[in-house]
Design a protein that fits this description.
Number of strands: 5
Strand order of the largest sheet: 3-2-1-4-5
Radius of gyration: 39 Å
Distance between the termini: 25 Å
Largest sheet: 5 strands, antiparallel
């Protein structure tokens, strides 16, 4: 019985598909470099959505403040005011007009890209406001000389960085797919029925 098992092991051969795969892998290892990583369509779509988000934030930080400053420059009035309240949660600056037709009115200053002037309660400040809607008000110095809009610049820089990275990734992906073609499919393994071993004669041969 031991001889029979040894013969069965000696007769075993690898399937043709496995042999073909081993030969293909050896050939590629000797002739070609490994194929670099290629970004998937899902990854590119995710990067594009991130770019749209950053671009939307940049527009939200740029357009409303500049529009308010433009409106106050063209048709706004300036008045003296006293700061009556400052809070950071939620963040706001409340002032009371001292001079002009709106004297005695209390309003909260509009934010400039989420920023407010650095003042304390009781400080005097010049305020530019819209006569038709006094709630649209900014510190007068911010109307003449707008502050550095850090949120808008930061969101714009992030959007441009992501856009450049996405374009570079698309160009690199196309170049890799052109110079490193996909591996040819390996033929599926064919199922072969094992051949039974030849019967072993246990009779003693005749002389």
């Amino acid at each position: 019985m031991a001889k029979k098992k040894r013969r069965a092991v000696d007769r075993y051969q690898l399937p043709p598909s496995v042999v073909a795969a081993q030969q293909l892998a050896a050939k590629r290892r000797d002739t070609l470099k490994p194929r670099p990583y290629v970004a998937t369509n899902r990854t590119i779509l995710g990067i594009f959505c991130t770019f749209l988000l950053c671009a939307g934030l940049a527009l939200a930080f740029w357009i409303p403040p500049r529009s308010l400053v433009h409106d106050l420059r063209s048709g706004g009035d300036t008045t003296a005011a006293i700061v009556t309240g400052v809070d950071n949660n939620p963040k706001y600056v409340e002032v009371e007009f001292v001079t002009g037709p709106e004297a005695g009115s209390k309003v909260r200053l509009s934010d400039y890209a989420g920023m407010y002037p650095d003042v304390d309660t009781g400080d005097s400040i010049l305020v530019a406001y819209d006569p038709d809607d006094p709630s649209l008000a900014l510190a007068e110095r911010w109307v003449t000389h707008p502050p550095f809009n850090l949120p808008a610049f930061g969101a714009t820089a992030c959007a441009l960085f992501i856009l450049v990275g996405m374009v570079w990734g698309l160009i690199r992906r196309r170049w890799i797919l052109k110079n490193w073609p996909a591996d040819p499919p390996v033929a599926p393994e064919k199922k072969t029925e094992p051949t039974p071993d030849a019967p072993v004669s246990l009779t003693k041969p005749q002389p």
